[in-house]
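Researcher: Structure for this, please.
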Amino acid sequence: MTDFRRDYIDLAQPRLGSRVTYATDDFFADKARLIDPEPAVFIPGKYDDNGKWMDGWESRRKRVPGHDWCVIRLGSPGAIAGFEIDTSHFTGNYPPFASIEACVSDAETPGEDAGWVELVAKMSLQGNSQVQVASADPKRVFTHVRFHIYPDGGVARLRVFGTVHVDWSKVAPGEVVDLLAMANGGRGLIANDEHFGKVENLTAPNRGKDMGDGWETRRRREPGHDWAILELGHAGVIEAIEVDTHHFKGNYPDRCFIQAAAEARGTPQEIAAQAETWPVLLPETKLQADHIHRFESQLASLGPVRFVRLNIIPDGGVSRLRLFGKIA
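Model: Predicted structure, token format:
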């Protein structure tokens, strides 16, 4: 069974520019919390003017016909593989049913005439639980998601898992772009260790907000070194690399080197095995704490590449990895 968290990124995450633009009602809990990247929490005894504070989106008890719904505008258009509906901490106030639609629109909040497509038919929910469900149309690209709850209630989080769509025809010939950027379809595939931070963070926009917003491994107590494998959004010739250790001061890697390949096939585990023999793009080099390291002249001429393996010696944390190049 597909693990959407492992195989895709959350297209609804705010750091991509996604936002909840509308909700029929969010009396008890602000609609914006529905896509908060952090796991939902429960704070006993915390109340506001409208009642118990809940970490999610929660509407009031409906006393008229109909049901509640909200609209999420995705920061980057994408193909949606599946969803995760999380009702953590909602026990006597979760909606018993939900459904999900999507559309393509330039509007902030598309109306009924936007050509909404049903991706998840009306399904039952349980309280204080998480459920993953596949999209009925995983190939088509969408810009908005409409989440229906029946008839009312609260949901902690909605994750929209998929792949970012980029119109590469709009990139000018010879233009240098960050081919590994999340917004350009770059993504982390697998790492040998993600104890303190996910490999996905390496491709995120902007600089890391704190030490938790990067890829960080545990302290290595055995021989060897740690590594992560990432896929570029488009194959390209790399002209510059930035390794950013922002916020990592007492735990940055001592050294790093980067391997690359034009092609890789199979599962992430199979690709990891292939990556051990990939040619070196950036030779082993010293790193500094809390610093953007930029490499240009040190890079090998490998031609177009699509996959990279970042090796850190022996362990530690890296905030961002940028691969600037021209598409091939």
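Researcher: Any notable elements?
Model: The helical segments are 4-7, 268-275. The two ends are 34 Å apart (CA to CA).
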